[in-house]
């Protein structure tokens, strides 16, 4: 179903994003820097290092049309990087956070971006020409814990968030003077900034990655309880269903079409979920068939395998004979996958290529054949 091209670009990768023409990739090698690599004849050359943050960079997004890079960090700051001649120049973002910034995403029209934080707050940032900086309006007092992921609806107004309080929420981000009401959907209506559309209490554990389908009619997010949730008819009376699996939890999701979702996470192997003609979602298969075959031949409980991954080997004074040491499992990724990014041209409704990165320091490009 898929062919993988594997590139070892660091010892550990926190997050990554692609340039508009997909010739360069920006990644954080688990520190306070952004490394930009350029592809040339199937080889990768590091061409830029962006240094401005003081602590680990937790989110990167590269806008496909305006060619801007936005970064956020545990240092509570964010910068928008613009290419000027041969250098990347940072522009200050006024976040007003007292806790770490955890995730970031450009809006579809690229006139705003959203930042989730450990301050139980979402920052919606927009540019002020007269001051040459990006300012933010805050969605406060809605989350009870850290905001782990944000996802823009195609109408550029609604945004979905997940949090470690176990909930997924949808808000309006309409900003007068920045947005217009001609979004073409009744979802946004006449909602004011920060007004909550719906709160989904489907998960009883931490909630992580969240994404909208290409049409914006379906929302998918994942919980730390090895469950993925699908929600239709976002509004006062949404319809929801969940798929629970026996493998390790997912960390992020991606719609490749209206009826197919790829989930990635702690099992190191992308999982494919599909919907039938009735709209019933189910697990379809593991994407990395080599790894699926290797892991299925291993014996021992799921708990033992996870425990072995955690410790790797016996600790002094602790008997760990029954736990297999952590070892490569023969697939493209050998550690947790924490980021999945589509590789598609502007205007495409389906995703035929996407990339993943993880704690093993690899960037893997997947080609969907069918």
TrEMBL record:
InterPro entries, per this entry?
Apc4-like_WD40_dom, ARPC1, WD40/YVTN_repeat-like_dom_sf, WD40_repeat_dom_sf, WD40_rpt
Anaphase-promoting complex subunit 4-like WD40 domain location is 17-106
Where is this protein chiefly located? cytoplasm
Q: Which GO terms describe its cellular component?
A: Arp2/3 protein complex
Q: Which GO terms describe its biological process?
A: Arp2/3 complex-mediated actin nucleation
Q: Name one Pfam family in it.
A: ANAPC4_WD40
> PANTHER family this protein is in?
ACTIN-RELATED PROTEIN 2/3 COMPLEX SUBUNIT 1, ACTIN-RELATED PROTEIN 2_3 COMPLEX SUBUNIT
Q: Which family does it belong to?
A: Belongs to the WD repeat ARPC1 family.
Assembly behavior? Component of the Arp2/3 complex composed of ARP2, ARP3, ARPC1/p41-ARC, ARPC2/p34-ARC, ARPC3/p21-ARC, ARPC4/p20-ARC and ARPC5/p16-ARC.
Q: What is this protein called?
A: Actin-related protein 2/3 complex subunit
Q: Which organism is it from?
A: Cinnamomum micranthum f. kanehirae
């Amino acid at each position: 179903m898929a062919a993988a091209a594997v590139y070892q670009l660091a010892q550990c990768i926190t997050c990554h994003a692609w340039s508009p023409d997909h010739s360069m990739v920006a990644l954080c090698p688990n520190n306070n820097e952004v490394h930009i690599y350029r592809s040339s004849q199937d080889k990768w050359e590091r061409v830029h290092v962006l240094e401005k943050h003081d602590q680990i960079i937790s989110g990167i997004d590269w806008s496909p049309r305006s060619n801007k890079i936005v970064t956020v960090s545990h240092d509570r700051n964010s910068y928008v990087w613009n290419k000027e001649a041969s250098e990347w120049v940072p522009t200050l973002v006024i976040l007003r956070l007292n806790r770490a910034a955890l995730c970031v995403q450009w809006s579809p029209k690229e006139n705003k971006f959203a930042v989730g934080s450990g301050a139980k707050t979402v920052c919606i940032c927009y540019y002020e020409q007269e001051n040459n900086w990006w300012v933010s309006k805050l969605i406060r007092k809605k989350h009870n814990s850290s905001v782990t992921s944000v996802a823009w609806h195609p109408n550029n107004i609604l945004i979905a968030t997940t949090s470690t309080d176990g909930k997924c929420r949808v808000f309006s981000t309409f900003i007068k003077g920045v947005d217009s009401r001609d979004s073409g959907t009744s979802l946004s209506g006449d909602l004011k900034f920060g007004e909550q559309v719906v709160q989904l209490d489907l998960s009883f554990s931490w909630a992580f990655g969240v994404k909208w389908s290409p049409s914006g009619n379906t929302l998918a997010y994942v919980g730390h309880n090895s469950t993925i949730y699908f929600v239709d008819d976002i509004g006062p009376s949404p319809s929801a269903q969940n798929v629970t699996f026996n493998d390790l939890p997912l960390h992020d999701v991606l719609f490749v079409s209206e009826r197919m979702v790829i989930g990635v996470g702690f099992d190191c192997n992308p999982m494919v979920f599909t919907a039938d003609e009735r709209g019933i979602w189910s697990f379809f298969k593991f994407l990395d068939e080599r790894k699926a075959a290797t892991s299925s031949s291993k014996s021992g409980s799921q708990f033992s395998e996870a425990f072995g991954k955690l410790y790797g080997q016996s600790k002094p004074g602790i008997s760990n004979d029954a736990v297999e040491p952590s070892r490569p499992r023969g697939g493209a990724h050998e550690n947790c996958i924490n980021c999945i990014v589509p590789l598609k041209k502007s205007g495409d409704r389906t995703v035929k290529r996407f990339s993943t990165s993880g704690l093993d320091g690899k960037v893997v490009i997947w080609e969907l054949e069918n």
